[in-house]
Amino acid sequence: MGTFGRIYYNIFMYPFEKILLGRIRRNLMGKARGNSLEIGFGTGVNLKYYDFEAIDSIILLERNMIKGVSVTDNKKVSVMEGDVMELPFEDNTFDTVIFTLVFCSVEHPERGLSEMRRVLKDNGHLIFIEHVVPEGKTMKKIAGSVNGTWSSMSNGCNLNRDTVSAIRDAGFHIVESDFSRKGVFVSGTAKKRRPEAFGVENQLS
Predict the structure, then answer these.
(1) So where are the chain's domains?
(2) Which CATH class is domain 3-27+83-204?
């Protein structure tokens, strides 16, 4: 995201971060366990909410790294450049995969979610916070009408994504979810569905 894109995005998100997202991050990030992966860590805002007693290691992955920026000196944390649509990890690597406010701008969400499912262990957990298409009819219409302009200013961020459905379609079972601020934000956890169940559901859909 370019400089102007970051400015617009930060202005838009600041009030939500102050009155809502900080609390959601605090409730969810503490559930990360074992070997973890965070997709699109940005400025590292989630780091202060992790329980490092429960985390063995965590990789922070960012598509466009800002060179020379130090995120943390915690020895359990490593930083990598990479794309969620082509993760450079073996199958069944991580106990926890985390993404927050990322899939609004992933070009092919289904591919990114499929990759996260691949690298997540069968008994692992997905943790997510996303802004999505609003639930209200009027707000949904507004989001659709301004999405093109907003997306061009914010380097591909979309206001009308249905990320919960995309998570399910990628082969996950939503364990817990919560819609906040009239349905603009969704957060929760998910687990991989069994391969045989995933295959049957895909055939029926």
Answers:
(1) 3-27+83-204
(2) alpha beta
